[in-house]
Amino acid sequence: MNFYITDDDEVFRSMLSQIIEDEELGEVVAEAEDGSFLDTNTLEINQVDILFIDLLMPIQDGIETIRRLGPSFKGKIIMISQVESKELIGEAYSLGIEYYITKPLNKVEVISVVRKVMERIRLERSIHDIQRSLSNVFDVHSMTNYRPNSDKKKITDWVQVLLSELGIAGENGSKDLLDIVNYLYEYETSFGLDAGFPTLKDIYTHVSLKKLGIMNSQEEVERERKSSEQRVRRAIYQSLNHMASIGLTDYANPKFENYASKFFDFETVRQRMSELKQVSVTSSTTHTRINAKKFIQVLYFESKQLLIERY
User: Fold this and answer.
1) 35-58, pLDDT tens digit by residue?
2) What is the pTM of this model?
3) Domains of the chain
């Protein structure tokens, strides 16, 4: 993230810059001592994501500067000031600022606020990218003889087979995993995977958008994204339990040999087997950490391979 700090106090600018750099929140690309030095062109050239701006400055104050910038500035604004006037704070929020931080600086508050704003920026960008991707996918489908419904059903069939083998076909998260594989298949068909997989967050956000519809609010999409992620992680934990239980019963079991090391890190499976052995094979308690991204990638590639082999 790129930050721009506008404040007439040089010491304050230095302190704020230090916090941003020390916490690796991003880069302070530029500073100014008054709002009169700010314009949309300067912000665009510096690709500013988050603008810190003081309320009271000698030539042009923060309120006037924000009003002048108007909607042309697409980034987020955090206002900082010693003033605690409800009227001024209310006016600042009505002009579109994200947060109002009072001086003197509280490091914990600054870090918390910045991370919340960064999270909102990432979410908005993810939603925008997914909406654009959906539009492109629909365009591709309309201009070719590609048969998405047929292909989706075929790959879904093989996902179901694998989920059954992994012991989680009936888990709540299995539906999310089906939707995720469908999205990845559609994504690769349209854009390829040369640049790598979409991030897990983008994947979950896409699945949530497709489930809820693109007209839902960001809060609703974010809530569903988190729920989807939790369901998937619970399903993956259940699969880990299933594989570890098989391994305890019969280490040479073909299902254990074929899937355990593919879908999970070897040490993770061994640790879970050890936990189950010490407690009981029905225990769901675990201190092991799963690699959800690896599981999803393997599920996708294994399903696609089965589809290709039997196409």
Assistant:
1) 999 888 889 888 999 999 999 898
2) 0.53
3) 2-122 (3.40.50.2300), 147-309 (no CATH)
In this structure, what token pair is assigned to residue 156? 């879904």
Which pair of tokens denotes residue 93?
């929020």
| Helical H segments across the chain, by residue range | 10-22, 40-45, 62-69, 86-94, 107-143, 148-165, 173-191, 200-212, 218-249, 254-255, 261-263, 266-278, 292-309
**Nearest alpha-carbon partner for 294 in 227, 225, 236:** 236
Chunked in runs of 10, what are the mean pLDDT values of the chain (311 residues)? 92 92 90 90 89 92 90 90 83 87 88 88 71 54 46 74 88 92 89 82 89 80 92 93 88 84 87 80 59 92 82 55
Q: Which of 64, 62, 10 is nearest to 33 (CA)?
A: 10
Q: Rounded to whole angstroms, how far apart are CA atoms 228 and 161? A: 21
Tokens coding 228 = 């989807």
CA proximity to 121, closest of 23, 69, 50: 50
Round to whole Å and give the CA distance between 74 and 69.
10
